[in-house]
Write a structure and sequence with these properties.
- The protein has helices at 19-28, 32-44, 47-51, 57-78, 91-95, 142-145, 152-157, 171-181, 199-203, 206-219, 223-236, 242-254, 258-271, 275-287, 291-304, 309-321, 325-338, 343-355, 359-371, 377-389, 393-406, 410-426, 430-443, 448-461, 464-477, 483-494, 498-511, 516-531.
- Helix 1 packs antiparallel against helix 2 and helix 19 (359-371) runs antiparallel to helix 20.
- It is mainly alpha-helical.
- It contains 28 helices and no strands.
- Among the domains are: 19-45 and 56-79; 372-436, Serine Threonine Protein Phosphatase 5, Tetratricopeptide repeat; 446-531, Tetratricopeptide repeat domain (Serine Threonine Protein Phosphatase 5, Tetratricopeptide repeat), CATH 1.25.40.
Length: 532
């Protein structure tokens, strides 16, 4: 048997790593700042000191190129944003969009008119909708945060919150801020002076060109120079490198040239089947408001990549945005068959069960998220609501207390107080409900639903004028909600103001065409007008 060796001398340390290898180690461990600093020291070191280790000039050139490339990649990773998931439409993209396909889309073929889908999903009476008309999803994504308002006035009025569709921040502006914020990563100024680069020279060196492209595209946000480099590089590769075609497509997409981007992605797919390219192509069709074509792209991708989670999830998202909730739930279940820890699928199925009057089933899915380590305000908020509607009252208040403790901003706190107000209404404590809705408005003064519910409580107290003022505020903040319009119509009809009642009832019917009470009220008012 071999004897074990004893410990070495106290304080003994191994040999120091060669600087370039140390920088690569930092990069692998995602310590990009330290990696960048070490590469900067290597690049600033005088040539004589570098070449002293070896008489070969070629070695020095390779070393400098490696350090330059590694620093470029480190700076890129510090500000890298995945282009597939980030897609936020701003005012510039919505109101100045020249890619008009069809002004009046057929039912079930447009994301602009999600209510036209025959998906059999819950009505707005059960499941709230955002300003864009889409049902509230169980998972916040960039696409659910974007809307398509019908007028410029409505777009500008939209609140700057994550509670509704928010078109106020232009995507081009966000990319611009990302580019300027990246200067923080290099206080001495830009690492590469793009105006002095000879792009044709770098295009002939594929390994350097790819690192340089990602630096220009992500770190400097200079799409024009990135596109020029990609065009020269793909020409040097004799148009046989699919990677460059994808990058050209990304540049075209960022510039708003969606049809050109579509051609590049299709050409790349002919050369090399890649899941990312399929996702980019579907993203182009969604921006062109062609969800059916995007669904076909995803389904063709699943034929070549069976069981790919991102493709199934993409199909589920489209169905959900088109208000086809039943098909969306089926595909989210397919996602869980492939990946049973997929947070988005679990959250969306839980949300679907909750709005389908199955709080016990929803509770099981939210508890699953809790067991997986998700620990945030939104989850405990949902748990509190599920416990209340499932009649597990002992857990309701403790869940809401935890949600309040974990709230990171005033909007989240407002959500919790609003739901506590609903719980108070459910147990019949209207004074507590009144206080909760007031606290909601203290935290978020743009909470239209809280204004509406406060107005209902004021109506029960007989305070007509306060109720009218609150309802007018709610309807101006959220014209997409039917409740404030309908309540205002009922209130106006009771006090004899039939004209205002009729106008508000028409707005309510426009927001929710299938609301029976609104239709009955309009019919009564028409009979009144006929008698006059």
């Amino acid at each position: 048997p071999r004897r074990s060796r004893g410990p070495g001398p106290a304080g003994a340390m191994g040999p120091e790593l060669e600087p370039l290898l140390q920088a690569w180690s930092y990069f692998r461990r995602r310590k990009f700042g330290q990696c960048s600093e070490l590469c900067s020291q290597l690049l600033k070191r005088p040539p004589a000191e570098q070449v002293a280790a070896s008489t070969l000039q070629a070695f020095y050139v390779i070393l400098i190129q490696a350090a330059w490339s590694l620093k470029t990649r480190a700076l890129t990773e510090m500000v890298y944003v995945d282009e597939i998931d980030i897609d936020e439409e701003g005012i510039a993209e919505m109101m100045l969009d020249e890619n008009a396909i069809a002004q009046v889309a057929r039912p079930g073929t447009s994301l602009k008119l999600p209510g036209t889908s025959q998906g059999g999903g819950p009505s707005p009476a059960v499941r709230p909708v955002t300003q864009s008309g889409r049902p509230i999803t169980g998972f916040v994504r960039p696409s659910t945060q974007s809307g398509r308002p019908s007028t410029m006035e409505q777009a500008i009025k939209t609140p700057r919150t994550g509670l509704t569709a928010r078109p106020i921040t232009s995507a081009s502006g966000r990319y611009g801020r990302l580019g300027t914020a990246s200067m923080i990563t290099n206080p001495d100024g830009p690492f590469i002076n793009l105006s002095r680069l000879n792009l044709a020279k770098y295009a002939q060196k594929p390994k350097l060109a790819k690192a340089l492209f990602e630096y220009i595209f992500h770190h400097e946000n200079d799409v024009k120079n990135a596109l020029d480099l990609a065009a020269l590089a793909t020409e040097h590769a004799q148009f046989k490198d699919w990677w460059w075609k994808v990058q050209i497509g990304k540049c075209y997409y960022r510039l708003g040239l969606y049809r050109e981007a579509e051609k590049q992605f299709k050409s790349a797919l002919k050369q090399q089947d890649m899941v990312d390219t399929i996702l980019y192509l579907a993203k182009v069709y969604l921006r062109l408001d062609q969800p059916v074509t995007a669904l076909n792209v995803f389904k063709q991708g699943l034929d070549r990549f069976p069981g790919e989670v991102t493709l199934i999830c993409g199909i589920a998202r489209i169905y959900e945005e088109m208000n086809n909730i039943s098909l969306a739930a089926e595909h989210y279940k397919d996602v869980l068959k492939q990946d049973n820890t997929h947070v988005e699928a679990i959250a969306c199925i839980g949300s679907n069960h909750f709005y389908s009057d199955q709080p016990e089933m929803a509770l099981r899915f939210y508890r699953r998220l809790l067991q997986m380590g998700v620990h945030n305000c939104q989850l405990f908020n949902n748990l509190g609501l599920c416990c209340f509607y499932a009649q597990q009252y002992d857990m309701t208040l403790s869940s809401f207390e935890r949600a309040l403790f974990l709230a990171e901003n005033e909007e989240e706190t407002a959500d919790v107080w609003y739901n506590l107000g609903h719980v108070a209404v459910g147990i019949g404590d209207l004074n507590l409900a009144y206080q909760c809705f007031k606290l909601t408005l203290v935290n978020n003064n743009d909470y239209a639903e809280a204004y509406n519910n406060l107005a209902v409580l004021e109506m029960q107290k007989g305070h007509i004028e306060q109720a009218r003022a609150l309802l007018q505020t709610a309807s101006s903040l959220a014209p997409h909600l039917y409740e404030p319009h309908f309540n205002f119509a009922i209130l106006s009809e009771k006090v004899g103001d039939l004209q205002r009642s009729y106008t508000a009832a028409q707005k309510s019917e426009e927001a929710f065409p299938g609301h029976v009470d609104t239709q009955q009220l309009i019919q009564q008012l028409k009979e009144h007008f006929a008698m006059l």
